[in-house]
Amino acid sequence: MIQKKDAIIGRWFNYYQDSCIGYVLGVQVNSFSNSSKIAISIEGGGYTVTDLEHLTPIKITEEIMLKCDAYWDDVLDEKDALVLDVTENIRIGWCGYLFLLIEGYVLQINNANSEYVHQLQNIYADLSGKELNINL
């Protein structure tokens, strides 16, 4: 289940009620009932307003990484990885799990459970100060 802190404008999720994907357009939090309403775009146009429990994370795949303009690189000794340039000295790599490449050093991302698109978007935004362009 998606947590409130993950419902950031521009983050991509599955909208399971209609079995489609969409990205967050806006969030309204009701402080009295501690509930949230999420406005989410829907494939094919339009939007809907839903609750957090109707959103599920999208797992990172090779196809999704390529839609982020990632490219194949032999940065790991044992296998190639898809890599995204973040800054001149920082890249994000993926080969079934996310890792960082900083000035040529490979660093495992502390949260080994970072396997979803919204987490990739958060890491990219934190490191670059910009949003990751994904053409889903």
Describe the fold and architecture.
By secondary structure, the protein is mostly beta strands. It is built from 2 helices and 10 strands. Strands 4-3-2-1-5 form a 5-stranded antiparallel β-sheet, with no helix packed on it. It is elongated, with a radius of gyration of 16 Å. The protein starts with 11 loop residues before the first strand and ends in an 8-residue tail after the last helix.
What's the gist of this structure?
With 136 residues, this protein is mainly beta. It has helices spanning 62-67, 117-128; strands spanning 12-15, 20-30, 35-41, 47-50, 55-56, 71-73, 81-85, 90-94, 98-102, 105-108.
The beta-strand count equals: 10
Q: Could you tell me how far the N terminus lies from the C terminus, measured between alpha carbons in angstroms?
A: 21 Å
> DSSP strand (E) fraction?
35-45%
Structural class, judged by helices and strands? mainly beta
The helicity comes to 10-25%
Could you spell the SSE succession in H and E letters? EEEEEHEEEEEH
**What does the radius of gyration come to?**
16 Å
Average pLDDT: 85
Q: Tell me the quaternary state.
A: single chain
